[in-house]
User: Which sequence fits this backbone?
């Protein structure tokens, strides 16, 4: 009789233990799924931000770079002007302004406000932004903004 009672107690204990273990596993799976969903959303938002910034910069470049070809009555020839030479050596400068990551041209004129809070960045990145980070192409700029936004 006591042996049957002992077996019943063990059976009840095993059932309760199995249920607790199942709940713990389910919660863990749910937490991982939630974390993956947040990661996918963040990655998507960062990619969309990079695409938007690249498009905005391309539009800005098209608006600000004048036509550098000069024609003569006898021949047509491309003659690079000083503006084109400067454009090849110019850079975009990433700096913090009012707690937000912004893009400036080499003369310090604000080109774009990225909307990325500098507070969320690591200390090393914030220190670099204090002096300004210079990048020489739109692609490099887009990649750097994407890295800083994640």
Assistant:
């Amino acid at each position: 009789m006591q042996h049957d009672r002992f077996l019943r107690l063990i059976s009840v204990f095993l059932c309760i233990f199995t249920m607790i273990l199942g709940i713990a596993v389910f919660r863990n799976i749910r937490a991982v799924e939630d974390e993956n969903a947040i990661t996918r959303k963040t990655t998507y938002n960062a990619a969309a931000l990079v695409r938007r910034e690249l498009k905005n910069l391309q539009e800005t470049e098209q608006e600000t770079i004048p036509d550098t070809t000069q024609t003569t009555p006898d021949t047509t020839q491309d003659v690079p002007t000083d503006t084109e030479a400067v454009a090849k050596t110019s850079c975009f400068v990433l700096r913090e302004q009012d707690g937000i990551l912004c893009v400036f041209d080499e003369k310090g004129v604000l080109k774009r406000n990225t909307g990325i809070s500098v507070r969320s960045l690591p200390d090393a990145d914030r220190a670099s932004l204090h002096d300004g980070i210079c990048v020489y192409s739109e692609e490099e700029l887009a990649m750097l903004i994407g890295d800083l936004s994640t």
User: Anything to note?
Assistant: The chain has one domain: 1-150. The longest helix spans residues 2-64. The mean pLDDT is 77. The helical segments are 2-64, 82-89, 123-131, 138-149.
